[in-house]
Design brief:
By secondary structure, this protein is mainly alpha-helical. Helices cover 62% and strands 0% of the residues. The chain is globular and about 45 Å long. It starts with a helix and ends with a helix. 25% of the residues are buried.
Length: 155
């Protein structure tokens, strides 16, 4: 029997690591084997593919920190501030960390009880754990769509 936590963790894996049900693709499918020069290509005022991927990773890292017992240290105003990626090696190192952190996030989610899913996330003003996890999934699909479009515009 799949619990709500397991179903939610699998939805997160779908958008980041291995799914095709909603968007017929996922972050890993779009970014693995992508040349870093494409990932950092700037089109008009749009964020680059690399920045969008780093943006999603920023939130995954921040929520993982909470799961590990730490504080919620991420802030929206810093969620697009990253050092430039300047080589294929840096890009691949980032992706390796992104995939591992996404799997860690999903593993944390899987371990939550129904009671924990409905508890306040850090502070009641942020809503429940479930609401924040669902928001992370939806936020990821939003930026995945942008990445797909950017790749089409660049090629």
């Amino acid at each position: 029997m799949n619990t709500i936590a397991q179903q939610t963790a699998n939805r997160l894996r779908e958008v980041i690591l291995n799914g095709t049900w909603i968007a017929n693709t996922n972050f890993k499918d779009q970014l693995d084997h992508l040349n870093y020069e494409i990932a950092i290509t700037k089109i008009d005022s749009f964020n680059t593919i690399a920045v969008l991927a780093q943006h999603i990773h920023y939130y995954i890292q921040g929520i993982n920190n909470v799961f590990k017992g730490g504080n919620l240290e991420i802030r929206d105003k810093y969620s697009f501030d990253f050092a430039s990626i300047t080589s294929q090696q840096q890009w691949e190192q980032f992706l390796f960390k992104f995939w591992n952190d996404a799997e860690a996030f999903a593993s944390f989610v899987e371990q939550l009880s129904n009671e924990q899913l409905h508890q306040a996330f850090v502070d009641e003003k942020y809503g429940s754990f479930l609401r924040n996890i669902d928001a992370m999934i939806e936020h990821s699909y939003y930026h995945l769509g942008q990445i797909v479009l950017l790749k089409k515009m660049i090629s």
